[in-house]
Specification:
This protein is mainly beta. It has two domains: about 160 residues, Fimbrillin-like (Immunoglobulin-like, Sandwich), CATH 2.60.40; about 140 residues, Immunoglobulin-like (Sandwich). Helix content is about 10%, strand content about 40%. It has three helices and 20 strands. The chain has a seven-stranded mixed sheet with strand order 1-11-8-5-2-3-4, with no helix packed on it. Strands 6, 7, 13, 14, 16 and 17 form a six-stranded antiparallel sheet that branches. It has a five-stranded mixed sheet with strand order 15-12-18-19-20, with no helix packed on it. A hairpin with a 6-residue loop joins strand 18 and strand 19. The longest helix has 21 residues.
Length: about 350
């Protein structure tokens, strides 16, 4: 009987050992909250995007975009960086570092702030500045607010001690690093619209003989320097022009046809950007232009080239959100008439 019991216990021990191999105990990903011997990971919450009328209108527009994150000393952003233009992506609604987990320094009381922008561009070395071009960029920062620990002592961040404190005090939801992105560039959207309203019996077919052949922006800057600590763009360079119309000979429609989009930079103290539209119609060839004198970051301005009835060729170029509006009529030779 004793021999049988020993054999049974031995078999049970082997069975349990086999089970443990197939069901290993998973490590606790939050063990660092109370175990001071473990490093504290750098983690971010679910970001948001400030609602503006520019190219990126929601986070879903950025799902396949590479972000970049800077972790800089809170007291002096020019000091040694914790993260320097580190790539990140959206994963299940959260911003995650692409090259694996990074950690806060173990033995340091240095407080850090985080800055992020997208899409990622080439870094300016160790300087928190980035050279950006003519596309929509978003930017955000997250700065820690001091909290009190269980003994009532104030703890500032972001650092390892701060992250443990906000978890232990149950305020991680409101005090963890998180980003609310805003646009740092302006946008231009150019449309061609057949002005068919009310009892008008015209249709898109009536405008098929009107062709937009070119759309050009001139006197615009096409590059600048983004200061990731402020979100401001300065040092504008590469001044010139940009053709927007990809496929020539576009006819206007009642619903509107997109002629092109751009994200130019404008120095408001210098000469304005000029928008020029070349048209061919039954009355001849002509050009209409309008000056863009001011632009605000994070706003997309829609310019509609409005065509009335073909027998009353008139173009109104207006910028939504702008005070300036220009209407031009043409004679039978396609020459602009004085208003």
């Amino acid at each position: 009987m004793k021999r049988f019991s020993l054999l049974l216990l031995g078999a049970l021990a082997i069975f349990m050992a086999g089970c443990s191999k197939h069901n290993p105990q998973q490590p606790d990903p939050d063990a660092w909250v109370t175990d001071l011997s473990l490093p504290v990971p750098i983690q971010f919450g679910s970001p948001s995007i400030i609602e503006t009328k520019a190219g990126f209108e929601s986070l879903s527009d950025l799902e396949n975009t590479t972000f970049a994150v800077f972790g800089l000393p809170k007291a002096d952003p020019t000091g040694t960086a914790l993260l320097l233009n580190e790539p990140a992506t959206l994963e299940s609604g959260y911003l995650a570092l692409s090259k694996g987990t990074k950690y806060y320094p173990r033995e340091s009381d240095e407080n850090y702030s985080f800055y992020a922008y997208a899409p990622q561009a080439a870094s300016g070395g160790t300087s928190p500045t980035i050279q950006i071009g003519t596309q929509d960029y978003v930017w955000a920062q997250t700065v820690a607010e001091p909290v009190n620990d269980a003994e009532g002592n104030e703890v500032d961040g972001y650092n390892a001690k701060y992250m443990r404190t906000i978890r232990q005090m149950g305020v991680a939801m409101t005090h963890s690093p998180n980003f609310a992105f805003k646009h740092v560039t302006s946008g231009l959207k150019i449309m061609a619209v057949a002005n068919i309203t009310g009892q008008d019996t015209s249709s898109d077919t009536d405008f098929k003989d009107i062709k937009i052949t070119d759309v050009l922006l001139t006197n615009m800057y096409r590059a600048g320097t983004l200061d990731v600590t402020t979100g401001e763009v300065s040092g504008l360079t590469n001044k010139g022009g940009q053709y927007l119309l990809k496929d020539g000979n576009v006819s206007p429609t009642k619903a509107g046809v997109l002629l092109g989009e751009a994200y130019p930079y404008l120095n408001n103290s210098e000469e304005p950007i000029t928008l020029t539209v070349d048209v061919e119609s039954p009355v001849g060839k002509y050009t209409v232009s309008i000056n863009i004198k001011e632009m605000q970051p994070g706003v997309r301005y829609v310019y509609k080239v409005m065509f009335n009835k073909p027998d009353d060729v008139r173009i109104a170029v207006s910028g939504v959100g702008w005070d300036e509006e220009q209407e031009i009529s043409f004679d039978d030779n396609g020459q602009p008439l004085e208003n």
